[in-house]
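Regression test case RT-17, inverse folding.

Input:
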């Protein structure tokens, strides 16, 4: 579940958070035109879910790395007792948002 201040905020749009299914672009809400334009152009960064391959809890604002270069930031992280895994969400460049892509936190 997206948390305000983590996955949504005045600086994080519903398009970046991949929540466009919950947005009606023709209802005239504040910034509707901006969001519609961003959806058409595709945002530079997007929200992705991830699983840690090692034990540890990813925390808000931890950096995310690809090939030694910082490429994003963790928005939320937690241990999932249901799946017995360490999971999180992070904002990364759109081109790094592929399934099974290896990143480092």
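Golden output:
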């Amino acid at each position: 579940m997206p948390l305000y201040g983590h996955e949504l905020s005045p600086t994080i749009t519903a398009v970046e958070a991949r929540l466009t299914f919950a947005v009606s672009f023709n209802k005239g809400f504040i910034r509707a035109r901006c969001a519609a334009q961003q959806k058409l152009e595709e945002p530079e960064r997007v929200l992705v879910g991830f699983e840690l391959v090692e034990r540890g809890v990813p925390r808000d604002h931890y950096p995310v790395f690809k090939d030694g270069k910082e490429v994003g930031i963790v928005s939320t992280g937690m241990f999932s007792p249901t799946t017995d895994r360490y999971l999180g969400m992070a904002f990364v460049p759109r081109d790094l948002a592929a399934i099974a892509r290896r990143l480092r936190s």
